[in-house]
Amino acid sequence: MVTSILHRATGIVLALGSLLVAAALLALASGPEAWGKVVALATSWYGLVVLVGWTWCLAYHWLNGIRHLLQDAGLGYSIERFVANSWISVIGSFVLTAAVWFVVYARGGIA
Amino acid sequence: MSQFDRFRQPIKNARGLGSAKDGVHHFIVQRVTAVALLFLSIYLIVFVVGLIGADYASARAAVAQPCNAVLLIAFLIASIWHGELGLQVIIEDYVHTPWLALTSRLVIKFVCVLVALASILAVVRIALGA
To answer: What per-residue confidence (pLDDT) applies to A84?
Structure first.
């Protein structure tokens, strides 16, 4: 129940995120000044909050999406399996987010 | 259910058309784009993390690489298409006022098409050095 609502909520966030992806690509195409603004936004504290939040939404939607595809194939429907693998989506999304940002900071951080 | 089966023509099942008149096309496309995005989103994360610390010229050069440009456009098409289908389902489930559901679906569809076209054009411009 909660995992399903979260799947939709993160999906909406990711759809809004594609507006930001499009904006970043348009800025990169239009020139160094516009790109500089994107970099300034992405490296500000609120930009960081958005990027970490976006990473978590993608990680959750990705893991829970695999779960939904397996459920489409008729797998994992017994109640205990269903509850157990929903925890994989929830806990795994935090693990994946931490892993991505560990690599980001290992590469010198975004600032 | 089974007592109604004899009233259904077999052609009905063969076409797979329900009351929506377009069968399982929506369902299939949502799953196909989902599988594509399992791979393309890993690629996107690796690509973007790889750009950390890059200046404008090298970021542009990375996007202009043909392999990256193709995968980025594939990601844009798959993700925006998947998003449009997902938002449509959410509206169908939660918006019960017909004119509002229709209007919001149209707005979402138009915005998605414009965002897809604009972002693909941006990648193409970068790839072609325009």
So the answer is: 85
